[in-house]
Design brief:
- With 349 residues, this protein is mainly beta.
- The chain contains five helices and 22 strands.
- The protein has helices at residues 11-15, 19-23, 52-55, 64-76, 202-207, and strands at residues 93-95, 98-113, 116-123, 132-135, 140-146, 155-157, 181-186, 192-197, 211-217, 229-236, 243-244, 255-257, 262-269, 275-279, 284-289, 292-300, 302-305, 310-316, 321-327, 334-335, 338-339, 343-348.
- A hairpin with a 2-residue loop joins strand 1 and strand 2 (98-113).
- The longest helix is centred in the first third of the chain and has 13 residues, at 64-76.
- The radius of gyration is 20 Å and the shape is globular.
- The two termini are 20 Å apart.
Length: 349
């Protein structure tokens, strides 16, 4: 998602000669039991397992060989195909100098990992909702129609909008009831990586998919560092467990870059937990937080993204290989049956 979609990579080309490296990417999983989720299913039945200590699962013995086979199998399945792609750029029309978007709130079944279809609340039938890309200082109108069975609203997270457009029911507006519409109008600012999401029954609605990226491009593009690839990374930790852009490993999408390219990664946390994202073999050049340019950019390989935060980083693709890219709270990414949840890879060719 983002300005440039990550290129599709064949499974054979991705994994040839790299299975060992990727399997070792998030080493440190607990040995000797199967995790059971809140629905009582084990990791072999639920493709995005949840940690035993969080969900009250029951330990079930596994042999070392069984663990190795399971870990290898899930890596070989990556990138697994699922129905639905979130974060597709939202089309707009111009009306008297105003950029007009339309969003429909819908309840749908969303496939998080292969075979794991869950009830989701969505914008335009996708998780995350469509990417809204606007320009600093150019007026915007967003028409929101509610086709769900419960009321909702939309908050423009990080934007300095007029109070009446802030999207908080009973503080700035009435809730948008089923069958009704509401029109939001504002002039985007500040520029940078921002979000939009429900602010009504938000634990459920945002947790189950009512979230999306709001990208505000600066009038003066020279204010931001140059990049070749633009990738948005939205984290959530309710619908289907731990997800990146609405999918859990092995259904997450890889990022691919050619040697020397500059990859911009927009980290956005729409979940309820902090997620420290670690990139193997490469370096972040972090230059913005919550859309605001840092007075002094810094380098690191792990960036902690708290709920509601956005961080922007450039990664220079200067080290060839298939590099693991994952949350470093290990119970969010790996267990005895291998990797799951908030895991993907960055491929440098």
């Amino acid at each position: 998602m983002g300005m440039h979609e990550p290129r599709q990579v064949s499974r054979r080309g991705l994994l040839k000669g790299t299975v060992g490296a990727v399997v070792a990417a998030a080493a440190g999983g607990v040995v000797g039991y199967t995790v059971r989720g809140a629905d009582g299913r084990g990791a072999d039945e639920a493709t995005s397992p949840t940690p035993d200590d969080q969900q009250g699962g029951t330990p079930i013995p596994m042999s070392n060989d069984d663990m190795d086979r399971a870990a290898e199998a899930v890596v070989k399945a990556f990138p697994a195909k699922t129905e639905g792609t979130g974060g597709v750029p939202l089309e707009y029309r111009m009306e008297s100098g105003v950029r007009v978007f339309e969003i429909v709130c819908q309840d749908v079944k969303w496939e998080v990992t292969p075979g794991q279809k869950l009830e989701a609340h969505t914008y335009n039938g996708m998780v995350p909702g469509p990417e809204i890309r606007v320009v600093e200082g150019e007026p915007v109108r967003v028409i929101v129609k509610n086709e769900m069975s419960q009321s909702t609203s939309v908050h423009w997270h990080g934007q300095r909008v007029p109070n009446a457009m802030d999207g908080v029911p009973f503080i700035t507006q009435p809730p948008i009831k089923p069958g009704e519409s509401f029109v939001y109008e504002f002039t985007p600012g500040p520029f940078g990586s921002h979000m939009y999401h429900s602010h009504h029954n938000a634990t459920e609605q945002v947790g189950r998919g009512m979230l999306g990226a709001l990208i505000v491009e600066p009038k003066d593009k020279s204010l931001e560092p140059a990049f070749d690839i633009d990738y948005t990374f939205i984290m959530n930790d309710m619908l289907g467990g731990f997800t990146i852009n609405g999918k859990g490993f092995p259904a997450t999408a890889p990022i691919s870059a050619k040697a020397g390219q500059r990859v911009r990664i927009r980290f956005m946390n729409e979940g309820q937990m902090s997620h420290p994202f670690h990139l193997h073999g490469l370096t972040y050049e972090v230059f913005a937080r919550d859309g605001y340019l840092l007075p002094q950019p810094f380098r690191c390989d792990t960036i902690n993204v708290a709920p509601g935060e956005r961080w922007d980083a450039i990664v220079v693709a200067d080290n060839p290989g298939v590099w693991a890219f994952h949350c470093h709270i290990l119970s969010h990414v790996e267990g005895p049956k291998g990797m799951f949840g908030m895991v993907t890879v960055l491929i440098v060719e």
